[in-house]
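Request: How about a record?
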Amino acid sequence: MAPDTTIFQFLTYPNPTVDQGGHETEGKNKRLANTINRNYVNPVRVVEWTEMKDLRVFREVFGGKLFEEAHREGRELQRPRVRPQDCIVISRKQTNELLNKWNKEIIMEALDPILETYRPLIWAQGEGLDGVTLRAPQSHPRKTQVQSAQASGPKTRKYKRISLDRLNPDSGSIASYPDSPSEKGQEKFLKVYKLATKWKSHWMKERGVIDESGSWLGLNNSTSWPIKQAFTYCVKFLCRYGCIITCEEAFLFRVRPLDENPGSEDPELLRERLAENGLLEYVSVPWGNHCQSDPKGYNEWTMNLALWFLHVVAGNSSDVQWKYQDLKEETALPSKHLRLQDQALPPVEEVPSDNSENHAENSSPLSSDRSISPVREVSSKAPENESQNKSQSSNGKVSSDDIAPSDPEQSLDEKTQSDGTASPDIGAPTKRKRRREDPKDQISTEADDDEILTRCIPKRKKRSNLMAKPTTPPRADQ
């Protein structure tokens, strides 16, 4: 099997033919039934996602650079191997295995070449999120309760809280290069796997889930539960994008509240309004779509191409907002390398080089210890300074300026006297004690400070015994 040379060619390759048993399993088999949970919430409207109708947005997003990247030659993209027994799908478990073995591997293989350039999401299960609750209105009261409430006057409507802690998708996507530690492992593009014989998107209108305008009709049947399930996951994790994947189609969608932006950035308010008045825009991509001719003239989404595209776009921005700009207006985030180069390094503090004589005269004994000061490098011109000192010592006198100030290790006994005459040891060759470089000397410790204080503060004499006899003075005749 020869590898594909472009990402577009790789993502438009046909999906394998799937054997689903030759009939729909719409019976009463609970093992194959869709998941039902009373805590699921539903969108108010479900409409077609017009921007994702064809590949026009793919050609225009990021200034057309992503489309050029997908058609760049010279790549070696290897398709995963699928055996005939892997294509027999008559249960949810077999559906999950095929989608992970074929579609997931293809998406990840096509994302690897652009990870550092576009920072897309990667197909991986995100971490759970605890403590998320929604308010739910109480069930409709009976007629007698309504009449008693009207007789007693208006009352405040009570709400109970429902927990979403145990609700998690089948799979998802996380950031390839998180911007913060809190973003690491955060769910950003959730996925729900379904058996193709149990759910199809065109059943929404055929079976009365939504009307022709897309308004939700409130029916609870096998077709509505998967939509409510996926939508609830978006509400919990505040994910902008999600999908329902079967072996016949990819139901890709985007969600947001229908309300106008109230001017608040509170995520809890955003979650509540999304749950109570949410919009779901969708596009359905058939499993069988593939490119048979010239890739440049192909203008339909394939299942893998659409999933790959949303992984890239969601890597740029994936959180729920009150309103979105057009997809073609999206601007790619800077690559990993550019972000590292743009990070400003902290300024380096320059330590001023003080004159050794002034430093010795003005500094206190506590600050003169060499274990506290930074390690200084020995100058490479030390032998030349020694020869100059030797020649100047023959004159008998030497000024303080003639001593090289680059000798920080020179002791006070070797410095010139205050009257301008040189000390007796200057005329003779001096043996400079070079400081031994020891890692322990480079670190100031509490023990070193105690030793300094001990050397600088004279010891106090012990008090004589009060009961001791006074010493008698010597006699004059002695």
